[in-house]
Write a structure and sequence with these properties.
With 339 residues, the protein is an alpha/beta fold. The protein is built from 15 helices and 9 strands. The protein has one domain (2-338): TIM Barrel (Alpha-Beta Barrel), CATH 3.20.20.210. Helix 4 runs parallel beside helix 7 and helix 10 packs parallel to helix 11.
Amino acid sequence: MRFLNACLRKKTDATPVWFMRQAGRYLAEYRRLKAKYTILELCDQPELAAEVTLQPIRAFDLDAAILFADILLIVRPMGLKLRFVKGEGPEIDPPVRTEKDVARLRRFHPEEGMGAVLDAVRIIRRDLADKVPLIGFAGAPFTVASYMIEGGPSKDYRNTKAMMHASPKLWKKLMTVLSDNTADYLKAQVDAGAQAIQLFDSWVGALSQSDFERFVKPYSAKIIKAVQRKGVPVIHFGTGTTPFLKSFADTGGDVVGVDWRPHLDDARKIIPASQAIQGNLDPVHLLLPRPVLKPLVKEVVRRAGGKKGHIFNLGHGIIKETDPDTVKAVADWVHDWTS
């Protein structure tokens, strides 16, 4: 398949295209479901999660489907409560900040703790009928840990950074249980039928290079090593990684996801030739008029320097105000220009 071949740096007939958050709020068919169900209800009912995953595959000429789930689902079988507050985002209760808080976190079996997600993977693979590959995913340990410690989104990650530096042994215990659960969860997704895996480190750009290398890199590397199997590529994606992109790439993975900040050809010089590269159109550009957008898309393709080892994507997720027709146009342009 085109996407899997590109992940493994094999020749493809055109540059593959998929979009982070391609299943979601910008689609009218998703909004109709969301009017009836909460985010957690959509995630917890495998048939609904499968339906949301498949909606963009029916609508656009995309080269991969990505599982509809949420990176924070994993905190529930670990013993925490998760809810989504309208206008504010996720809320985790209680926050994990003390020795006792970390000691209470459970190591769980994926089929028991995340069974609904794994059932969704099985349904999606059946319904896709190998039309395109299915990407499974999980949040990287730093991003999930930051939500757990802060209790929700944060602008400065003050409690997270305080634990790193002031209580490094406690941080190690938290990251160990979290990375072990994440590795088990991702392996279970592959066993259920996921054909590729993406590890999302959405907030890792809040760190310095030294903090990333000391407090985060060993745990992400451990997950990637545990998950990698022959023919099942792993994508390692983070935002704000430009200052330490070489170190981020060295963490592992078959593909390095690059956000919209660096030029793709400059990133290519830093990322080892053995790894494919994914990215990196600014999601905001999808809100632009087509005549303005088209040359920006073409510039990403040009800077990729050829279709071998490049997966076209955004530098982060689709913004909810995006016109679906624009998503279709971008996918078609990239395929037309590179075929």
